[in-house]
Amino acid sequence: MLSWAAAFQLRQHFRQSLWAVPLLGAVAGGALAVVDLRIEGHITLPRAWSYSESTASSVLTTVSGAMIGLLGLVVTVGVLVVQMATGTLSPRFMRLWYRDRLQKLVLAAFTATFAFSFALLREVGPGSVPDLGVTLAGLAVSVDLVLLLLYLDRFVHALRPVAVAAAVARSGLAVLAQADEAEPAVRGPDRRSGEVRGQGVSLHSTRSGAIQALHARGIVALAAKHDLICVVRCTVGDFVNVGGVMMDVYGAPSPRDLRRLRGMVALGHERTIDQDPAFAVRIIVDIAIRALSPAVNDPTTATQMINHLGALLAGVGSRAQSEHGTFVDADGYLRLAVPTRSWDDYLDLGVSEIRQYGRRSPQTCRRLRAMLMDFEDVVLPAHRPAVRRHLEALDEMVRLSFGDGHDLRFALMQDRQGVGGPSRAPAAIHRSGRA
């Protein structure tokens, strides 16, 4: 029986594979051809749908060849996507692009049409012409062309940096929303907080990899059944080496319990966004600092990244954060503790590198200031001191970078467009409520 971690990895593989859905499409196309051949003689068709042997053979041959050509076109586009992502965006974004459903639908439609036409082609002969099948093949080509146009439109528009940032921010906010929805089912008041009973047993990793997900419900259920307390040392997204300690288990766990617990921690070659909203922040920051590098020098793109980064961080900052996520069983006893990122961690991740790489760009400094000033209005009061610390760090960096005079005053302003929007003088004016 597959462990939860193995099942999670299998789901990840199929979600990101570009062969699984097209293969199902080919199977479906062949099956549809078999069904068509069985009903050909039982359906009366209009005369316009009747074809000669040569016409049917030509149509089906042309359709089969066209589908192979279109598959090659889509593969070429996919190669261009990889090159564009690694050169101008972030290689980490490819994990989301591989999940694109339209891309898989297009590939599946092409392979299904090819399999359907090729299967019918061998049945064409004297006195045996699948009229319905030939007509359906023609209609399938029309549908495939529409899907191809939609796919090309997606390729052209969805791979712009600003579109990528918007999509990644939505994905990160969706992960946060899923975590909020899952909380009532597994969290509650801890009746035995901090109590650790028995000798702790360290659970070592048998392979290296990034922690992609934890099966919190399964760990809680197992710990409740055997009266255990599990304390995870690493958070989702951390990289663990072979032999590294993933979890401390308190109580009296059996070797079987430890194997099952190990099977509830999914490891992979790289991070995934499924339980890791910080990975979304990482992708957006990567695109921003690449745009700010001397080789690219595109601060406007960095400013657009800050727009969507602010939306994502505002969603994080409006939620309560703690150093550990504690999960309890149905009776309210602590069963699982997982280290979690604090608001300071998210803010450091989202702001620090952009501030450093954009220190010579007034546009970036002004947009960062506007984002941080907005946070003072939308995040929880407990999170505002961290925002003020970053504002002070931004002030210090701007003064060191621009010296005195007009450039300094210009860079110290806040502007939601970076440069070009209604700018405001330094933070004191904003806080006082005067325009």
SSE diagram, text form:
Layout: H1 4-16, H2 20-39, H3 53-88, H4 94-97, H5 101-121, H6 131-158, H7 161-186, E1 200-204, E2 209-214, H8 216-226, E3 229-232, E4 239-240, E5 245-250, H9 255-262, E6 265-268, H10 277-291, H11 299-317, E7 324-328, E8 334-339, H12 343-357, H13 362-378, H14 384-402, H15 406-411, H16 427-432
Parallel strand pairs: 3-8
Antiparallel strand pairs: 1-5, 2-4, 2-6, 3-5, 7-8
How would you sum up this structure, described in words?
The chain has 435 residues and is of the alpha+beta class. Among the domains are: 4-159, no CATH class; 278-319 and 343-432. The protein is 61% helix and 9% strand. The protein has 16 helices and 8 strands. The strands form 2 sheets. The protein has a 5-stranded mixed beta sheet, with helices on one face. Strands 4-2-6 form a 3-stranded antiparallel beta sheet. Strand 7 and strand 8 (334-339) form a beta hairpin. Helix 10 runs parallel beside helix 12 (343-357) and helix 11 (299-317) runs antiparallel to helix 12. The chain is flat. Residues 184-194 and 427-435 have low confidence and may be disordered.
